[in-house]
Amino acid sequence: MVSTETPVCDFGRPAPDFVLPATDGRILSLADVRGERGLLVMFICNHCPYVKAIRDRLIRDAAALRAEGIGSCAIMSNDPTDYPEDSFANMQRIAEEYHFPFPYLYDETQEVARRFGAVCTPDFFGYGADLTLQYRGRLDASRKEAVAGARRELFEAMVQVARTGHGPREQIPSIGCSIKWKEA
């Protein structure tokens, strides 16, 4: 496992469009998952200890952001060849077991992750109503273990985006497992 830190937010960068299969059998696009006031795109996977450590809080925050007009989706872009826990069947199992309040999408070709510039799991991209990037930070101060009383950085930032159209200027990068790219 290689720990990777996300780049700083490229404010104003437009959200790349996509069309991907969801664990519930639907085929969804960017337009299908966006909310009235913005969109949170999360690159996650099933095997990563960083994702496992924040999964419950991620579910809580995505559900709460829906009330603020922020749509959410999670995208799994890892190559499951060497990480069978990240297979589509296991994605379906995890989404159902944890009652994901957002679509869990499979980026089999890894093209979507490349267009977004995703580098790790978790990697968060928060967009305003105009679908321009306003947040590229972490969920909170947790790493592989929850930090008691940690400030809800991603939630607070996305509420700010929903209400003002702009994310906070100061953002702390997310850290996680590198995306498992397919061999060329």
Which key features would you list for this structure?
3-stranded antiparallel sheet, 184 residues, AhpC/TSA, antioxidant activity, 27% helix, alpha+beta, oxidoreductase activity, 10 strands
Explained architecture:
The protein is of the alpha+beta class and 184 residues long. A five-stranded mixed sheet has the order 6-5-4-8-9. The chain is globular, with a radius of gyration of 15 Å.
Question: Could you give the topology of this structure?
Answer:
Layout: E1 3-5, E2 19-21, E3 27-29, H1 30-33, E4 38-43, H2 49-66, E5 70-76, H3 88-97, E6 104-106, H4 111-116, E7 120-121, E8 123-128, E9 133-135, H5 153-164, E10 175-178
Parallel strand pairs: 4-5, 5-6
Antiparallel strand pairs: 1-10, 2-3, 4-8, 7-10, 8-9
Order of helices and strands: EEEHEHEHEHEEEHE
Spans of at least 5 consecutive residues with low confidence: none
Largest sheet: 5 strands, mixed
Assign the CATH architecture: 3-Layer(aba) Sandwich
Structural class of the secondary structure composition?
alpha+beta
CATH class, please? Alpha Beta
- CATH topological fold name: Glutaredoxin
Strand order of the largest sheet: 6-5-4-8-9
What is the general shape? globular
Continuous helix count: 5
- Estimate the mean pLDDT confidence: 95
Question: Which band does the percent of strand residues land in?
Answer: 15-25%
The total of beta strands comes to 10
| Helix fraction bin | 25-40%
Query: For this structure, what is the CATH homologous superfamily?
Result: Glutaredoxin
Protein name: Thioredoxin family protein
Pfam family, one: AhpC-TSA
InterPro entries: AhpC/TSA (IPR000866), PRX-like1 (IPR047262), Thioredoxin-like_sf (IPR036249), Thioredoxin_domain (IPR013766)
GO molecular function: antioxidant activity; oxidoreductase activity
